[in-house]
Amino acid sequence: MGMSILLGLVACSLIGGNLVGAISCNADNSTLTSTISPTPTCTPSRPVNDAVSNGGFECGLAPWVPEDIVNTRHALTSPGDASSFAYEFDQVGPKVPEADMHPASVYQDIYLAAGVTYNLKFRTFFDKCTQNEGFVGVMINRAPLYTVDACDKGAGAFKDNLVQFTAAVNLINLRFEFLTNENPAVFKIDNVSVVPLH
Q1: Residue 153 in 3-state DSSP?
Q2: 74-124, pLDDT tens digit by residue?
Q3: Range 14-17, long-range pairs (CB < 8 A, 24+ positions)
């Protein structure tokens, strides 16, 4: 067994299946990647007027909260979109029936001014475009806002997404959902920002 795989197995055992650096762990605490990237060491911050903290995933995962389901995993992988890291979703087994109602996701609570219109910008990456590839969906307080799939914008490179919405309340749960019938499949998001429309 290679040293990096052995280190990954030890790390997954010690952290109980949580993410450390770019190590991705299964529910049974076995590692799914064979290389270890250094964990970013910085404090998540926000650019001026941007409600999203750590939208480029350059400071690890916090304050984002991942929710994996059976046969999925997440990781921070490098390179990101013109940056060091991106959030990666992987479908690693057949889609389970529950995925249609509760897909894998990553979310962050943000504070906005109610009644103000905002631009949500982010970049997506899909490994391929097929009929089964699925989509990345954006939810605001559990209400659907936007979906994009690989065949909408093309696969194999990061692509721009821009959505305008008006905040109905001050506290917003910004959630990205990942759903696919393809196995295996890789989706990535990066450079997430929510700024007021001027």
Answers
A1: helix
A2: 999 999 998 899 999 999 999 999 999 999 999 999 999 999 999 999 999
A3: none
